[in-house]
Amino acid sequence: MTGGRxxxxxxxxxxxxxxxxxxxxxxxxxxxxxxxYCFYGIDPQFNTKVQTGDIIVAGDNFGxxxxxxxxxxxxxxxxxRYLIASSFARIFYRNAINIxxxxxECPVLVEEVNEGERLAVELDKGEITNLDTGKVxxxxxxxxxxxxxxxxxxxxxxxQKRLKSVLNSSF
Length: 171
Fold this sequence. Notes:
The chain has one domain: Aconitase, domain 4. The longest helix has 16 residues, at 155-170. With 171 residues, the protein is an alpha/beta fold. It has helices at 15-18, 46-49, 70-77, 90-98, 107-112, 144-152, 155-170; strands at residues 4-8, 55-58, 82-85, 103-105, 118-122, 127-130, 136-138.
């Protein structure tokens, strides 16, 4: 079981801090480059420290503020594999799912985990293991539809897959 390193944030982390507005001009043309600006408002060097597969752990209301779709895109393109928080702003939660970025609510883990520790997530089991302490945390497993969207890589790819399936079965 491999794990991602934890980057810990507090509560009410808003989308303006996740991806400042001055970097949004062409975000939808080259979304894969948005990771270089991820959390620039908190730590301009974040993108040089984070590694693919790392995990963000945060407090309440993560992703509040504007409905900036570029915020979860920046996080995903920075290499973050999972977002775990006590709670998420609703539109941020949906935007993250739509791009294939798993967002999990696990308040007990948020209280107990430390930055730098390594976590392994098993979505299908609803479990997160702290690889440094051995403690296992449980979260409400994602519903089947959300899991299918994530497995497809996001909503657009899920819809393409479903349409292809429907069209192929019609003939």
